[in-house]
Design goal:
291 residues; alpha/beta; Rossmann fold; 2 domains; six-stranded parallel beta sheet; three-stranded parallel beta sheet; 10 helices; 41% helix; methylenetetrahydrofolate dehydrogenase (NADP+) activity; methionine biosynthesis
Length: 291
C-alpha cells in the first residue's frame, strides 16, 4: 500500500484563491494590500524567488514594489530603504530577500523591519510572540506545513510530532506552531542520540535539516504523515536531480501521507507569504484577522 501524496501545488492554489477573494473584498472597501520586496546583490536563486513572489502577488491582486540594490550596497543604504518602507502607510508587507551579501548583518536588517509589516515573521518580536502563542506574523514555510497537515489530518491535538532540524527559519517556529496545535513535540538535531528511534515514534514527521535522503523507512512509524521541507540537489549517474531530506521512494510504502520534492512544501511558502501580506493589511486597518 502506498502513501497518499500531499499535493502542495493544489493546496497553494487553494490558499491563493482564498487570498485573492479577500483582497477583492478589501479593494472594494478602498484598501489595496501592498508588498515591498528588497533584493540586494546578484544571487541567481534570489532573483528567481523574487520574480515568483512578484508574480503571485500580481495574480492575487496585491500591489508589489521591488527595490533592487547592487551587491556593493552598504548596510546603511539598505536600512534607509527599510526605514522608508516602514514609514509608508501604503505598504503593508516588507520582505528583505535572504541571503544578503556577506558585508551586511542580516539580523540588523531584519530587526529594522516594522514587526507589523514583517511578512517573513523573522523579527524577534514576532518570534517571541509565536513562542508565547500570540497571534503574530509567522514564518511562511512552517505556516505552509501547518496548512498541509491540517488539510491532511484535520485536528492535530494529541499527535506526537517530531521536527528534524532546529533552524530559526523552519525548525524552531515549526515546533512552536505544532505546540500551539496541541501536539506533543520533539525536536531532533545533530546532537540527538539515536534520532531514528525517536523519529520512529512520531505520528507526524517534519524534516527540515538540509541533508539529502537522510530519513529512510527505518525512521518512520507505519502510518505516519511526513512533511519534507528539504530541497537538495544531488548528482546521480552524471545527472542532477532535486531530492528532499526524506528518502521518498523508501518511505512511500510506510507513511500514510507524504509530500513530494519538488511540488510539496515549496509552493506553499509563497502562498503563505501572500496570506501574511493580506493578514498584515487587515491588522493595520484594524480589521479582524481571517484565516
Amino acid at each position: 500500500m502506498s502513501a497518499q501524496l500531499i499535493d502542495g501545488k493544489a493546496a497553494a492554489a487553494r490558499v491563493l484563491a482564498e487570498v485573492a477573494a479577500e483582497v477583492a473584498v478589501l479593494k472594494a472597501r478602498g484598501i489595496e494590500p501592498a508588498l515591498a520586496v528588497v533584493l540586494v546583490g546578484d544571487d541567481p536563486a534570489s532573483h528567481v524567488y523574487v520574480r515568483n513572489k512578484v508574480l503571485r502577488a500580481n495574480e492575487v491582486g496585491i500591489r508589489s514594489l521591488e527595490y533592487r540594490l547592487g551587491a556593493n550596497t552598504s548596510a546603511e543604504a539598505v536600512l534607509e530603504v527599510v526605514a522608508g518602507l516602514n514609514a509608508d502607510a501604503s505598504v503593508n508587507g516588507i520582505l528583505v530577500q535572504l541571503p544578503l551579501p556577506a558585508h551586511i548583518d542580516e539580523t540588523r536588517v531584519l530587526q529594522a523591519i516594522d514587526p507589523a509589516k514583517d511578512v517573513d515573521g523573522f523579527h524577534s518580536e514576532n518570534v517571541g510572540g509565536l513562542s508565547q502563542g500570540r497571534p503574530v506574523l509567522t514564518p511562511c514555510t512552517p505556516a505552509g506545513c501547518m496548512r498541509l497537515l491540517r488539510d491532511t489530518l484535520g485536528d492535530l491535538s494529541g499527535k506526537h510530532a517530531v521536527v528534524v532540524g532546529r533552524s530559526n527559519i523552519v525548525g524552531k517556529p515549526m515546533a512552536a506552531l505544532l505546540l500551539a496545535a496541541n501536539c506533543s513535540v520533539s525536536v531532533l538535531h545533530s546532537r540527538s542520540v539515536k534520532p531514528e528511534k525517536l523519529c520512529g515514534q512520531a505520528d507526524i514527521v517534519v524534516a527540515a535539516v538540509g541533508r539529502p535522503l537522510l530519513i529512510g523507512a527505518d525512521w518512520i512509524k507505519p502510518g505516519a504523515v511526513v512533511i519534507d521541507v528539504g530541497i537538495n540537489r544531488i548528482e546521480e549517474n552524471g545527472r542532477s536531480r532535486l531530492v528532499g531530506d526524506v528518502d521518498f521512494d523508501a518511505v512511500l510504502p510506510v507513511a500514510s501521507a507524504i509530500t513530494p520534492v519538488p511540488g510539496g512544501v515549496g509552493p506553499m511558502t509563497i502562498a503563505m507569504l501572500m496570506h501574511n501580506t493580506l493578514l498584515a493589511a487587515r491588522q493595520q486597518h484594524g480589521l479582524t484577522a481571517q484565516e
